[in-house]
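It is worth pausing here to work through a concrete case rather than discussing structure prediction in the abstract. The textbook approach is simple: state the sequence, then state the predicted structure, then interpret. We follow exactly that order.
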Amino acid sequence: MDKIDQLINVNGIKQGYTIREACDATGVGPTAIRRWVTQLIQEFEGITPSANAITPEQKRIQELEAQIRNIE
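Step two, the predicted structure:
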């Protein structure tokens, strides 16, 4: 399980952990946690990120967009 999976599934936002608790649980810094949380919220709102997606839906959108670019 990578760190983002740990954040989301084990010690993440959905369980109401603080940024500090999430940092302690995953071993990453608060800046990364805040960036992930911001990106995750945007993805839940349907915004496709420029970075690698977190949610399965946005990952699939990025895969399909890459396939379209390859076809063109």
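Step three, interpretation. The helical segments are 3-10, 19-26, 30-44, 56-71. The chain is about 65% helix and 0% strand.
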